[in-house]
């Protein structure tokens, strides 16, 4: 439905978007994820019509929309600051866009009522924006941008101003509304958890480039490079040299990673040349911690507990290996804390399976 | 907060006494029966009566009011436009000159502004009268308006305008329906400032007024040059009273709306 | 198109009614006085073409400026304007600072009222405020009556029509301009800084000099400029309170223009006054800029 074709955007000498191509499909909940300054907001503003690309085409339903002013686009935006008009009531804010279309009064009233119902704001219709809470304001902004039934809704850090608890509730609400209305949502966020929760597909951006575009589980389980692995969630990265395992299966590699340590084993669909530098990314929850060397484990290393971060539901152990490398391992706290098996300075074994880690080229 | 120390109490008391006693004396002695302004001879409203029958003063007051209304209204429109251009406008040819011309009249001595405008009016053969004073007052007060309005525009959340565009407004509609209602308080205080500046101005009006268009300050000035007079005291009292009532009313209104807003916000926070 | 109109209207207005008149002043200051209407030569004659323009420029000279340097009157007027403006600025600071300080230390609920009381005189007619002092300072005025009554003096003091009256007038009318920026600076000042200084061994007074004053420096500078710049070109105060003995450049310009009808000299006086103002204005601008940068 949306197609970015070789889009480049420069501000003076600064390149915000660098020759980027991307397709977004109908009814998708698409997230643009990246650190601040990565160009995700610029992408969104180009979709909204507030910026135009320096080079390239942006198509909406097959038509080039570059140069179409924002008020002529079937695209609406929910602003990070919500941008609710302070001098208008909630009702008038939601009706604002409908009135601009010159719709009959009865139509406007019906549509506003529908939107108020959708966002559960019926009680607050007559209030002014400063008379309602932050979460309600967020819903007004959503209702206002959905009122015109746009083909595409842009959400710029829509939950950034809410506290954590409210944010989580609102995330599910957003998904629910997206499903009900069938609108294509594009959300911009720097919060990876949020992107993973709400989106059906996530684009990880950095410095004006797309790093990886995939579903949340693929982004997490099989990142394409160290940047994505490191950006999304917690990860242990071990640098080493890959050698195809003789006699083993085709896609198994031996990784020499430190003097005097046993080589590690991992499988990878991508090919590595013998001796090529590689990075093994292992999520802490895939690392098992035990007192004895587990039998039959292909990847096992020994170290001592350096630090324990107790997070309630889980604990993260920082384990220092003999080579000095620190590896994080997570365990679910199924027992009470007083019955914890390991404490500081305890010698422990860490192990993971051959498929537990992902082998990356860079 | 903490209580005032004796030093602060003394300096505030003396400071406000210094600011208000001269005006207070003026007001009290406007009700003096004697023609000698410094000798109290009993209460009387005689001078107010005479003021009402002084055609020259009334004419001048009428001229002043007309000039103030017209000049401040034009200045508000021009000043708001200028502020918008300065804050929102991208670069254009002569932007530096433009902003220079906005700020220069603020620091320009009035005698120079008056002189230069007079020389212009003579140069182009424009007869001096109400029109020339309006032109002159508009020119310097639009700069004040634009400073007041642009300080509001700077803090204006630009995404409000973008949201209006996004919801289908043309840029002009966005300005009329969103920007203007929100910056209205600044525009109104700009108008008030321009209005009082115009009412108050002696020097520039003296240069640009013709014989048939004397303003009140010019009249007062030529009268007080000769010395203190009870009639001027009465006139001053009337003017002080109008201003005091206006300012106090305005501050009460703004205070009330502030209090209401705070209450609303508290309630909203509680409702959450 | 609309955008162009938005820029063009105020732009052209200012060009026509600010810049052009200013250029005319500059031109006339280089012309000679003549018994004609307009009373100066040369006049620019576009009908005569290029020759007319050349003749026009040939007719311009710095005679009026030389005249200004030769006649004592102007020298003295510039110098006395500068000293009067400077002294009144210092006086205004000395009176304004304690008031601003007291306001900043006042209980929070008083502050809006105090603020309004400072601003209120600003909305009142300038002329009336100056005039109110005429009745107070005159020989049989209230101040003398009061002082004679208390027995502090035996002879009435002569204050009106002296420089002292001018100082009082300037301090009185420009006091709000000094108080407001200083108050704004002091209001922002974090009380815990003073407490920290005292905790580290400062006395109250040294905490004031070492912490409060440096941190309100920008407010002080802004206030001083806001008083000094208009005071330098002041006309109403010296002519109502200063009498004939007080020379100030704004008054000289006025008299040169209205009484002597010498437009070229009046224009030259104006140009020199502006040159005097350039330095404080540039300093003020830089101060404001620095402050704006510091806030970012």
From TrEMBL, chain B:
SUPFAM superfamilies linked to this entry: MetI-like
Domain ABC transmembrane type-1: 61-253
A Pfam cross-reference name: BPD_transp_1
Keywords, sorted A to Z: Cell membrane, Membrane, Transmembrane, Transmembrane helix, Transport
Cell compartment(s), UniProt: Cell membrane
GO BP terms, alphabetized: transmembrane transport
Membrane topology field: Multi-pass membrane protein
Predominant cellular place of this UniProt entry's protein: membrane
Family note: Belongs to the binding-protein-dependent transport system permease family. CysTW subfamily.
Descriptive protein name: ABC transporter permease subunit
UniProtKB/TrEMBL annotation, chain C:
Mode of membrane association: Multi-pass membrane protein
Location within or outside the cell: Cell membrane
Domain ABC transmembrane type-1 span(s) in chain numbering: 78-284
Pfam families in UniProt: BPD_transp_1 (PF00528)
UniProt keyword terms in alphabetical order: Cell membrane, Membrane, Transmembrane, Transmembrane helix, Transport
CDD domains with a match to the protein in the record: TM_PBP2
Protein's UniProt name: ABC transporter permease subunit
Organism: Antarcticimicrobium luteum
